[in-house]
TrEMBL record:
<dbReference type="Pfam" id="PF00884">
    <property type="entry name" value="Sulfatase"/>
</dbReference>
<feature type="domain" description="Sulfatase N-terminal">
    <location>
        <begin position="36"/>
        <end position="367"/>
    </location>
</feature>
<keyword id="KW-0106">Calcium</keyword>
<keyword id="KW-0732">Signal</keyword>
<dbReference type="InterPro" id="IPR050738">
    <property type="entry name" value="Sulfatase"/>
</dbReference>
<keyword id="KW-0378">Hydrolase</keyword>
<keyword id="KW-0479">Metal-binding</keyword>
<protein>
    <submittedName>
        <fullName>Arylsulfatase</fullName>
    </submittedName>
</protein>
<comment type="similarity">
    <text>Belongs to the sulfatase family.</text>
</comment>
<dbReference type="InterPro" id="IPR017850">
    <property type="entry name" value="Alkaline_phosphatase_core_sf"/>
</dbReference>
<feature type="signal peptide">
    <location>
        <begin position="1"/>
        <end position="27"/>
    </location>
</feature>
<dbReference type="InterPro" id="IPR000917">
    <property type="entry name" value="Sulfatase_N"/>
</dbReference>
<dbReference type="InterPro" id="IPR024607">
    <property type="entry name" value="Sulfatase_CS"/>
</dbReference>
Length: 467
């Protein structure tokens, strides 16, 4: 892969429990004697099976694969929702979709009205003073930073990262169109818009993936003296599939879209490698836990050509469904955690975990006892090999094309399909591809879990649904 653009990003910009459903997290870990640095790297639309360590054979991801070999790979990890904004809301706030302030990319009511192109739409946003991972850690003495995609602002000018706990923000906002795309003309440094040299007027001098990598590495170098929390939010490999170079894939007998998709993931993987290299060069490797994940499953729409890309790479493996769906292919994500001094190398873990777990987990890793409302669980004992989580319910809902729900408890997964009152039940141990609905065979399980579908959903002004 051509690495010149990886060096251009920074220069172009200059210096720029916890109850099963809800509870109060007093997450303190006696197992860690020093508050570690915490880096959470999140890709967009990256499928579990797009990575070599999960079985991908056509796309090369050596740096993320090395993370898995040196740390822990989760095989039953989930996003908070099957689409971007709500999944990131779950990640940042620790709330599942029955309680979250943002439950879909677009609001059904309330929110703030704005424009996507020429289309007038409503978007929800984080509430003022709503706790986030960043705001909680900031109060515990952490320096906090976000580089890349926020997507929790909607059209509210006040719902920006620096109003929700981040000391630094370098990236793009939903409400500012010129900051978006893989060759953005503008880029935020806090609340200040900066020009991206060479990208104005359709220029393609600096690639968004490389900007994110360069500024993330710069954040690490500048804050090496204090514990920090850094969210690295890549836009790749979200469509459109655009890359400055096809690299080693140029000679493959594939279509142009397939080459671009593979190269996008390789640029992302190279970025992860640069972040790891920066940690090592800064002497922070053993003091830093790094997570790599995605917001949800791989995208399959809106065009047939796009579906062909993720099918070609088998991005969702044996799982049913894609992004926007509550079947496993829409919500399952990769999750890898690396902390050389504390996490055993080459560990594979099958515990069902999901995005709301991040908030209580970072508190556990930091060794802090803080009262905060969350739907997640502290994964610190799992990460450090000191225990397992008790069985608990995982819950999702989404609103595209209309309301539907899903929940998992142990091996059982219940789905209320879109626009239907019918309930489906799957045994994920025997049937991970959700091919056999066994609802009629286990009416008592359906009865129990259907009650949870009702109790986990809290009414929302932005998403008025009557159950």
């Amino acid at each position: 892969m051509n690495r010149r653009t990886l060096l251009a990003g920074t220069a172009a910009l200059g210096t720029v429990t916890l109850g099963l459903s809800e509870g109060v997290a007093h997450a303190a870990s006696k197992a860690v004697s020093r508050a570690p640095n915490i880096i959470y790297i999140i890709a967009d639309d990256l499928g579990v099976y797009d990575l070599g360590c999960y079985g991908q054979t056509r796309i090369r991801t050596p740096h993320i694969d090395r993370m898995a070999a040196q740390g822990m790979k989760f095989t039953q990890a989930y996003g908070g929702a099957p689409i971007c904004s709500p999944s990131r809301c779950a990640l940042m706030t620790g709330r599942h979709m029955g309680h979250a302030s943002i439950r879909d990319n677009f609001a059904l009511a309330g929110g703030v009205v704005g424009y996507k192109g020429k289309e007038q739409i409503r978007r929800a946003n984080l509430f003022d003073q709503e706790p986030t991972v960043a705001s909680v850690l900031k109060k515990q003495g952490y320096v906090t930073g976000l580089v890349g995609k926020w997507h929790l602002d909607g059209y509210d000018p006040d719902a920006i990262p620096t109003r929700h706990g981040f000391d630094e923000f370098h990236g793009w906002l939903t409400q500012t169109e010129k900051t978006q795309g893989y060759f953005p003309e503008k880029w935020y440094d806090g609340t200040t818009l900066q020009d991206v040299a060479g990208n104005a007027g359709g220029g393609r001098a600096v690639y968004e993936t490389d900007i994110v990598t360069g500024q993330s590495c710069d954040f690490i170098r500048r804050h090496r003296q204090k514990p920090f929390f850094l969210t690295v939010a890549y836009n790749a490999p979200h469509s459109p599939h655009i890359t400055p170079a096809e690299g080693d894939y140029a000679g493959e007998p594939w279509g142009a879209r397939e080459k671009a998709y593979a190269a996008m993931i390789e640029f992302l993987d190279a970025g992860v490698g640069s972040i790891l290299q920066t940690l090592e060069a800064s002497g922070l490797d053993n003091d830093t836990i790094v997570f790599v994940s995605s917001d949800h499953g791989p995208r399959s729409e809106p065009t047939a050509e796009q579906t062909e890309v993720v099918t070609f790479f088998n991005s969702h493996g044996p799982l049913r469904g894609y992004k926007r769906e509550l079947y496993e292919g829409g919500i399952r994500v990769p999750l890898i955690a690396r902390w050389p001094s504390r996490i055993a190398a080459g560990t594979t873990n099958g515990t069902p975990v999901y995005h709301p777990d991040l908030l209580p987990t970072v508190l556990g890793l930091a060794g802090r006892s803080v009262p905060v409302v969350t739907d997640g669980r502290d994964l610190t004992p799992v990460l450090l090999g000191q225990g397992e989580l008790p069985e608990r319910l995982l819950y999702w809902e989404t609103y595209e094309p209309s309301f539907w729900q899903a929940a998992r408890l142990g091996k059982w997964k219940i789905v209320r399909p879109v626009g239907s009152s019918r309930l489906e039940l799957y045994d994920l141990t025997a049937d991970p591809g959700e091919k056999r609905d066994v609802a009629t065979r286990y009416p008592e399980i359906v009865r129990e879990l259907s009650g949870r579908l009702v109790s986990e959903h809290r009414p929302s002004r932005e998403y008025p649904i009557a159950l």
